[in-house]
What does this fold into?
Amino acid sequence: MKLYHAADIHLGRRRLDGRLPDDDIVTAFRFIAEEAIREKADVFLLAGDLFDRPQVEPSHLRQAQDVLHLLKSAGIPVIAIEGNHDKQFVNTKVPTWVSFLSDDNLLILLRPEFHAEGVRLNEWNPVSRTGAWVEINGVRFVGAGYLGAATPNKVRQIIGEIPAGKTHVLLLHAGPEYFVGEGGGFSKEDLQVLKDKVCYLALGHIHKPMLYGGWACNPGSPENCDLREASYSLGKDGKPVGRGYAVLEIDPNRPDQPIFLEIRSNPRRPCLRVELDCTAFGSKTKNGADAFLSAAGKAIKEGNPDKTAVIELMLAGSLNLNRIALDLTKAALEIAGQAGVFAVSIDTTRLNIGSGFAPGGSAGTDLLPRDELERRAILQLVDEQPLWGLQEDRQAFADLFYELKELVRGGQTGEAIASQIGISPLIEKVRAASATPLPPQISAESVATTEDVQ
It folds into this structure.
């Protein structure tokens, strides 16, 4: 049996303030589907986060339908689970747009049922279109989806209900604990428990391609949901690695592991990183901005990038901000035009701005774009009121608060804002931390507890 495995499509993802088109993501998804059809795959697996948000725009729903119709017309069943971006909350039973696609007979959505005594794995019912497992050609597919901070415990419950003597494929939206940096990551011990019952573990969630012992795999996101993800296409040695989708073959009579497994790459928009030392521009008393723009365009051109490329311009060195004022949003557009590339993103996080950053607005902050100024101010507020037990997640909380601020600024409804909170993996960590009492030597007045953010 030949399987195609994809995850983290994220249809509807808004990238680079909308300067990168939606078509990039659906084009990558369609390529993988067409490859599955060309190679006559028996089953297509979707391991979570088909959509970027629980509230799906009509155009993005149509994108999903069009690709899934291709697979259905070719007679290839699609087996799917929901990721954290597909659902409003981890444990909600509210229908999602993935369940809508299941009701529309475009995919088979698998969900386990958890209750006080444990988990219930029911066979998928084609009438009610509910269930946790389905058997195709002697292989049993079990869907776990995104389980949040309870992943290790709930996965062990699921494994306890999986019968021996069958060839099983488990779909799980989770990553290793050392990578995800959040409650709910699995450990090496968890993998060993899975290995005893599972022939193939189809993973999603982390966007980075990973292989575990020839039997477990996360193929990585087909398109860059964030420019930083471009580095996931390179190995530790700097050479390209497969990223985007996995192809495997399973013998139903061999339940230990696939007889073939590899991660392959799909075409995606080129994303290149260019570094520029800005020290020289800070010493100029005249035309500093013009010199910066010219040097940036030249540095990008030296790499001979494709005209469809998006460039991540990393500013480094030191800069006297009293000598140069620049609107980076406009600068990015001008540099892209000079360099003849599709788009430019300017990253100032490695730039030594000399006089330092003052949230209230000090000399030289004109160099920083509005979003960077606001992000730094929010991070400073988080640092001033740390969350007990969650101090290591300060940046993640600052990023979440910034996203919520942007939703308010954009006039989004309370439902949309609640949805964004619900899909954050931080919520499970907050609940877990809230149940942990403060140590005796730390008073409630000396540190903000997690109840303050609920």
